[in-house]
Amino acid sequence: MSLKRPNRRAGVLLVAAICLLGTVNVFAASAAMSDAQIALYQGMDREKMLIEGAKREGQLTFYNSHTWFRSYVKEFEKKYPFIKVSEWRSDSKNLLSRAMAEFGSTRSLVDVIETTAEAMGVMKRNGMFQEYFTPEARYYPDDVKVKGKSGLYYLGDRETYNSLGFNTNLIAANEAPKTLNDLLDPKWKGKMAIAGTSTGVRWVGSTLDTLGREFLNKMAGQELTVQNMSGAALAGLVASGEVPLSPTIFDADVTVAKQKNAPIQWRALDPVVTTVGYSGLSSKASHPHAALLFLDYLHGKEGQQLMMKGGLWSPRDDTGSLDQKFEKLYLDSKYSLDELEKKLVEWENLMRQLFVRRK
Description:
This protein folds into two domains: about 35-160 and about 275-310, D-Maltodextrin-Binding Protein, domain 2, CATH 3.40.190; about 160-275 and about 325-355, D-Maltodextrin-Binding Protein, domain 2, CATH 3.40.190. Strand 1, helix 4 (about 70-80) and strand 2 (about 85-90) form a beta-alpha-beta unit. Strands 1, 2, 3, 4, 5, 6, 9, 10, 11 and 12 form a ten-stranded mixed β-sheet that branches. Strands 7-8 form a two-stranded parallel ribbon. By secondary structure, the chain is of the alpha/beta class. Helix content is about 45%, strand content about 20%. The radius of gyration is 24 Å and the shape is elongated. It has helices spanning about 10-30, 35-40, 45-55, 70-80, 90-105, 115-125, 200-210, 215-220, 230-240, 250-260, 290-300, 300-310, 330-335, 335-355, and strands at about 60-65, 85-90, 110-115, 130, 145, 150-165, 195, 225, 245-250, 265, 270-280, 330. The longest helix is centred in the N-terminal third of the chain and has 25 residues, at about 10-30. Helix 1 packs across helix 3 (about 45-55) and helix 5 (about 90-105) packs parallel to helix 6 (about 115-125).
């Protein structure tokens, strides 16, 4: 009796067929699920399903409110070279306006939204977020999770601190203000500016809550000006010396500027306005697989370590923190969304009343 040798080519074809069948099954399973089911999927093949789906989608659109996400996008695209990220950045107020206008139209462009709490809360109230699952959420404290019935509406991914930035070529460290009251020193008259965006509005609100209207009236006498730009852009003016000092500068922007040898320094003037950035999945996402991969990366340990390289604080439990020894003020937890919305309008009006000079 003679035994026939196995046909090697047939074996290779069989293995290839099995692999192809597995891929087809992933495609079929993903295609059969609604976007909501994809967003909340927790199966063992979740990552594989997301990668295969993202390869088909090939792109995602990301709206955010921090300059450091430019670096994020580049690193994410290196990790997933089959995904092209279209990024658009502005302050939370402009981001909210654009996202809501798109959402109310026939087609929303954005897939992932990242900005601060009050804007995220307004968008959530308008049904703009899809609840989603990420396995990384277990590493985060509950106080940075905004939960729905089945998943998360959004999750905290960064914490920033807003206080004094000053140009070291113009002001020696031992001469720079060490408290908010030091800002009233006559030598700083005409040398200070605040950001005209929500960054400056929040500073006005926190200062009003802490030191009262009388202090702000005195600050108006210091000829403090309002620059109609973001805190990041204002940090650039401080670094260039055009604005010697500002109490509305983010420590993260100073960290990045100092890496480029810019003559700028940051100092905490208690209490420090602390802002948490959150990220969520649009309920009209056109590229849900790619968007979920991005959210996994953003909240993963690798992504959070990258976040800290930008001088930001990570809320993730196992990533570590910056050893900040100052008093933090969380306006978002101090007020409800409805209260904060009213407060922001009041504070912006007060800012313009006190500091915007009409010619």
